[in-house]
Every structure is written in structure tokens, then in C-alpha cells.
Design brief:
Rossmann fold; SH3 type barrels; 14 helices; about 20% strand; globular; binds N-carbamoyl-L-aspartate
Length: about 475
């Protein structure tokens, strides 16, 4: 399998072996970073950053220049035709006809996926709202690999705004896949979203436990009591992979502490953000004196605000500036591979990959829509061509996962496309809690957000809609 011509919109677009192959090339390129100027000569990158960025944009652009390619860029929605009401699909088609690769950061969740669907050239997600930031995860894993030699078996704490942090979401999936144990240490009210937890426990067969099982100085003192952690359950296919790399020396304590800032731009009111800011956990010298942190590397995707004290910058455990620096070779390797200008051997999986769950797909013009106001599929300019699309991830209760932002909805009403004998008076809708949810074939399911919607489509309530039977 080659990476040429592939888009990267979510970390799951890459297998563990492909990630390792990117690191192999990144190592080679970082050893001779000034000697790569023929690799992508003549190629053009479109760098579209519709949210603030320093590291991601400049490291992608630096990577392309170091590879000998060129860059065109747009950094402000207000200065593009998106501000005139153009859809991102139209923008993608046009920019895809100018450039060989598109790197996009956008506030809408799922935006990069839509751009990838329409651009006709590889698209790299540089952050889509609170959803994912897969190339930051590459930089994070690369640093873990460099500092700890292996990822499997490490214990890593994710700290801060786990709710809105896109770096957290991509990293949590990757760590689970590589077989690390993750401690979630959210700021108050900033726990990991339900849909991320669900994916970790179903797709990655992780096991979730409450924190209060843990002992030590941290318990209750520095951590919110409702923090949780996840370990790959045993036996787990990932856990069975023979580890050929160096043994992890650290037997207790944390291998890495991954700190994130409060994502204040994701709050609807400044008052809410202000309140959380005051109770936001801070990593400082005193905290790092705790036994658990003795050999812990401190990471942060940056920018930092107040959550990481400057006093620890000179501490050898602090790794965040190195982590940012490694973003250039990591992105050089990714871009060169995706453009097909470099090839690397990608190892065969050491164990069969965890089989992807083949959820039935629900896609209709009308009926249930995603409820996430930041989802690309709910934006006025995009609903003209995007059909809502979901994976049916559960029947009891009926749970749909939006394919764009991955938020879940629990719609209350269902009907079948094949009503009994085609007679109009058998065209009925039912409660999604009734047994009909299992009787109607997924291909025939019609799912509604409300009774009004079902009735507008000519359906009448069955006894199962009113809960009488
Ligand atoms: C992160 C982002 O944009 O999500 N920054 C980055 O890309 N290095 C983290 C953040 O902004 O907090």
C-alpha cells in the first residue's frame, strides 16, 4: 500500500505501519534537511488556514519549501469567496485545479473531509474545528518515539481541555491503536466527549475505568475526581503485537504528560470560558516534583497560555519546543509521500489489524440531520449539496454517528421505506425505542428527528409511536 495520492483527514486514514514509515523518512530527512530541495521541485501546495495558526501553517510551508516545492496561501475566510457565500466544495474544485496538494484548517468539523471529496488532489487536515488534527498527532507520536523508543506500553496523561481539543481526539485514537495506556485528566467540565469515549471503547476495544481506583499523591488533590483512564483490554490484538523495540524502563508513574490549553474560541459565551479559565489545571515546577512525574516528558501542541508555567522550560523533561521543531521533518516526509515524490517500504502489519466495524450507513435527502452546529453538514452554504450521512452504530438505543463530525444523535422516530402492501394507511412511523428498530432492514430505515417531520412526509403514528403498545 502506498501513500501516494492519499488524503489525511483523520488519524485513522493511516495504519500504524504507515505512521512508522513516515517517521522512518522523517528521520532520514531531518539528518539532511537542507539537501531535499529536488524532492518536490515543480509541485505546488495550497495552504488554506481559516483559523489562527503559527506552527502548523509555517511548518507545512517550511516543509514544502525545504522539499523544493512552492506554496500559495489564503489565511482569512474574509479575503476569499467563502465570504461571498461560496461552498467549500466549489472552493475545493477550483483550488484542486491550481495546486498539487491542499492543506486546510477550518473551523467547521468535517470540512477537510468535504474538501478531500471534491478537490481531486490529496488534502491534509490541519485541524477541523474540535474534531481532529491528525498531523499534530504525527508530531506527537514522533516525539514519543524519539524520546521513549516505543509507544506500545507507555502510560500517557492527556491534560486540560479534552472536550474541545482536536489534538487530544486524534492523539487518543492513535495512542489506543498503538497500545498505550491513557489517563484522562480533564479540567472541570472539559471531559472527553461521549462520542470519542464510545469510539475508543468500541473501535479500539479499550477499557475505561474510573480514576478513584488510582492511589498516590495525585488522587483527589490535583485531579478532578471524575477523570478516567483507558487501557487496551487484554487479550487485545494490539496488545499481542510482539514489541521488538526497547523495553520501557518506567514501571510506575507517567511516561508523558500531554498538556493542552483551554480552547476558548470554542465557547459560545466569554463568561463560560472565563469561569473555566479560573479553575483550569496548571502544570508547574511544584507539580513536576511529584513522584509520578520523575521521568515524565512534558509535551504540549502549543500555543500555551497559562496552563504551562514558563519556569519549567529549562527542565530536561520539557519537550514542547522540540516537539514543534520535529513538525518540519514529519510534515516533509508526509508531503513527499503523499505527492508520490518519495517511496518507503511499509511493513506488513505485525498482527492482523483490528477489523474495522462495518456499520450500516444511513444516507437520505430528508429526515434526521446532524445536531452539531459546528458540523460542516449543517452549514447553510453546504446543505445544498451535502446529504446528511451517518453510521448506524447502535440500535438500542438507536444511535447514529455523523460521518463528518462524528457526533452522535439519538433520533426518536423511525419508519420503513416499504410500508405494508404499499397501502397508504399502513404508512406508519414508530418510536425508535420500539421493536421496529430491529425489524426494519437498515436499507429500508427512514429516521426522523420529530413527529412533525414524519407527518410532513405522509406518515401516521403507529401504536408504537405513542408508546401505547
Ligand atoms: C493546536 C491546534 O490548533 O489545535 N495547535 C497546533 O496546531 N499546534 C492546539 C491549540 O491551538 O491549542
Amino acid at each position: 500500500m502506498s501513500l501516494a495520492n492519499r488524503s489525511l483527514t483523520a488519524i485513522d486514514d493511516l495504519s500504524n505501519e504507515e505512521i512508522e514509515a513516515i517517521f522512518f523518512l522523517a528521520d532520514e530527512m531531518s539528518d539532511s534537511i537542507r539537501e531535499q530541495t529536488e524532492v518536490c521541485r515543480g509541485k505546488l501546495m495550497a495552504s488554506l488556514f481559516f483559523e489562527p495558526s503559527t506552527r502548523t501553517r509555517l511548518s507545512f510551508e517550511a516543509a514544502m519549501h525545504r522539499l523544493g516545492g512552492n506554496v500559495i496561501s489564503a489565511v482569512d475566510i474574509g479575503a476569499t469567496s467563502l465570504a461571498k457565500g461560496e461552498s467549500i466544495a466549489d472552493m475545493a474544485k477550483v483550488i484542486g485545479s491550481y495546486a498539487d496538494i491542499i492543506v486546510i484548517r477550518h473551523p467547521w468539523e468535517g470540512a477537510a473531509r468535504v474538501v478531500a471529496d471534491y478537490a481531486g488532489v490529496p488534502v491534509i487536515n490541519a485541524g477541523d474545528g474540535s474534531h481532529e488534527h491528525p498531523t499534530q498527532t504525527l508530531c506527537d507520536l514522533y516525539t514519543l518515539k524519539k524520546e521513549r523508543k516505543t509507544i506500545k506500553g507507555l502510560t500517557i496523561a492527556l491534560w486540560g481541555d479534552l472536550k474541545h481539543g482536536r489534538t487530544i481526539h486524534s492523539l487518543a485514537y492513535a495512542l489506543a491503536r498503538f497500545g498505550a495506556t491513557i489517563h484522562f485528566r480533564p479540567g472541570p467540565g472539559l471531559e472527553l466527549p461521549e462520542h470519542v469515549i464510545k469510539k475508543l471503547t468500541t473501535e479500539y476495544t479499550g477499557r475505561l475505568e474510573k480514576y478513584d481506583k488510582l492511589d498516590g499523591a495525585l488522587k483527589g488533590k490535583l485531579l478532578p475526581l471524575d477523570a478516567i483512564y483507558i487501557t487496551p483490554s487484554v487479550p487485545h490484538q494490539l496488545a499481542n503485537i510482539p514489541d521488538v523495540s526497547v523495553q520501557v524502563e518506567l514501571k510506575t508513574g507517567l511516561d508523558a504528560l500531554y498538556v493542552t490549553r483551554l480552547q476558548k474560541e470554542r465557547f459560545s459565551t466569554t463568561a463560560e470560558g472565563k469561569e473555566l479559565k479560573d479553575s483550569y489545571p496548571v502544570v508547574d515546577k511544584k507539580l513536576l516534583e511529584e513522584k509520578e512525574f520523575k521521568e515524565t516528558i512534558v509535551m504540549h501542541p502549543l500555543p500555551r497560555v497559562d496552563e504551562l508555567a514558563h519556569e519549567i522550560d529549562a527542565d530536561p523533561r520539557s519537550m514542547y519546543f522540540k516537539q514543534a521543531e520535529r513538525g518540519v521533518p514529519a510534515r516533509m516526509a508526509l508531503v513527499a509521500l503523499v505527492l508520490g515524490d518519495r517511496k518507503v517500504d511499509i511493513a506488513k502489519p505485525k498482527a492482523p489489524p483490528t477489523p474495522k466495524i462495518d456499520y450500516p450507513v444511513y444516507k437520505r435527502d430528508s429526515g434526521v440531520r446532524c445536531h452539531n452546529p459546528s458540523c460542516v453538514s449543517t452549514q447553510a452554504t453546504e446543505t445544498k449539496y451535502i446529504k446528511p450521512e451517518f453510521k448506524i452504530v447502535d440500535l438500542k438505543p438507536l444511535t447514529l454517528r455523523c460521518i463528518y463530525c462524528e457526533h452522535e444523535v439519538h433520533p426518536p422516530y423511525i419508519a420503513s421505506l416499504e410500508w405494508h402492501e404499499g397501502k397508504i394507511d399502513t404508512k406508519k412511523y414508530h418510536s425508535a425505542d420500539s421493536r421496529w428498530v430491529e425489524k426494519i432492514r437498515p436499507d429500508n430505515l427512514i429516521i426522523f428527528d420529530s413527529e412533525k417531520e414524519a407527518q410532513a412526509q405522509g406518515f401516521k403514528p403507529s401504536h408504537y409511536a405513542t408508546g401505547k403498545e
